[in-house]
Write a structure and sequence with these properties.
About 40% of the residues lie in helices and about 20% in strands. The chain contains eleven helices and ten strands. The strands form two sheets. It has a seven-stranded mixed β-sheet, with helices on both faces. It has a three-stranded antiparallel β-sheet with strand order 2-4-3. A hairpin with a 2-residue loop joins strand 3 and strand 4. Helix 5 crosses helix 10. The protein is rod-shaped and about 140 Å long. The mean pLDDT is about 95. 3,4-dihydroxyphenylalanine (DAH) binds next to strand 9 and strand 10.
Length: about 350
């Protein structure tokens, strides 16, 4: 009897030691099987032992074994609970999101220099009472050329390296096509500007196969060349500053008569002559003229009753001058280090 009691005491010490070492469910399960396993478990072996001792000792021993069994069961139950709790805490920790951490910096978008320039120009004309209109970039030969006084055989076609979609459909080479759309859908008087993308097969540091123009058109009764000159003067002074001066040179466009190249006094040197104006003191900035009667006839207007002026300018050219950019390709390379400098 004493032997068995000692054994129980020894198992108990051993169990308590082993209990301390359990740190995961795996070793917990091993421990449980070792003591409580139905086959070969220590408690089973103690009960087997009970059968071999004196009958009179059995109740006391039985009680002792039972007490040990309850102790083991309770200890394992407590341990299992604490392991479960630890596991849950660990998972909670993994899920934890520290809301006090500083956030990621928000990348703020900016405006493209061409957008800034276009809006600047639009705002100047809107302030003078102009509407803003747009038209198709894929255009019929008639709207892009014919209606503007440029028939198939006209030498003016040579100056516009055209992308043809088919014999009769082109990527518009200028925004002048919108003049025709506007005149066919509106009744004079009106003042409109028409910004948009245009296309020419041309590429170097000042030419891009896709670029932007802004067309202007004013039609009404008694619109004169004076009006054209005054309008452009106000425009250039608002765009480049009040010291900007205007110069008109005779020119030719099939859709205007008379026609003029419009120069502004060099915005870099003020007209002294520098590298940008190639020593001349002037920068060529746009084309303009009085709407040719043939254009009015093509849209069904009576050239005896209405007159008008038109102009066309390149947005890239103005942006390059305003921002001091020397290579047109920078606008379209999409290099964020370049674009970030403007807006
Ligand atoms: N369409 C011309 C071009 O692409 C620019 C132009 C010149 C437009 C004179 C006009 C104008 O409206 O009157 O080069």
């Amino acid at each position: 009897m004493k032997q068995v009691l000692d054994k129980i005491a020894e198992y108990r010490r051993e169990f308590e030691e082993e209990l301390k070492k359990v740190d995961a469910f795996k070793s917990f399960e091993d421990l449980r099987v070792k003591y409580l396993g139905r086959k070969g478990g220590i408690l089973k072996s103690l009960l087997d032992l009970l059968k071999t001792v004196d009958k009179k000792d059995r109740p006391v021993l039985g009680q002792e074994i039972n007490r040990f069994k309850i102790f083991v069961e309770q200890a394992l139950k407590d341990l299992e609970e604490s392991l479960s709790r630890k596991k849950a805490e660990l998972e909670e920790k993994k899920r934890f999101f520290d809301i006090s951490l500083p956030g990621f910096p928000l990348l703020e978008g900016g405006k493209h220099p061409l957008t800034i320039t276009r809006r600047l120009i639009e705002d100047i004309f809107i302030a003078m009472g102009y509407d803003v209109a747009s038209g198709p970039e894929v255009e019929s030969d008639w709207y892009n050329f014919e209606a503007l006084g440029i028939p198939k055989t006209h030498p003016a076609r040579d100056t516009q390296d055209t992308f043809y979609i088919s014999d009769d459909v082109v990527l518009r080479t200028h925004t002048s096509n919108v003049q025709i759309h506007v005149m066919k859908t509106r009744k004079p008087p009106f003042k409109v500007i028409m910004p948009g993308r245009v296309y020419r097969k041309d590429a170097d540091i000042t030419h891009s196969p896709m670029f932007h123009q802004i067309e202007g058109l004013v039609v009404g009764e008694n619109v004169t060349f004076q009006d054209l000159k005054g309008t452009l003067e106000i425009f250039l002074k608002r765009l480049f500053g009040k010291n900007a001066r205007l110069r008109l040179r005779p020119s030719f466009f099939p859709f205007t008569e008379p026609s003029a190249e419009v120069d502004v006094s060099c915005i870099m040197c003020g007209g002294e002559g520098c590298r940008v104006c190639k020593g001349s003191g002037w920068l060529e900035i746009l084309g303009a003229g009085m709407v040719d009667p043939v254009v009015f006839e093509n849209v069904g207007y009576d050239p005896e009753k209405v007159s008008g002026f038109a102009f066309g300018l390149g947005v890239e050219r103005i942006a390059m001058l305003k921002f001091g950019i020397s290579d047109i390709r920078l606008f379209f390379d999409n290099d964020i280090r370049f674009l970030r400098q403007f807006g």
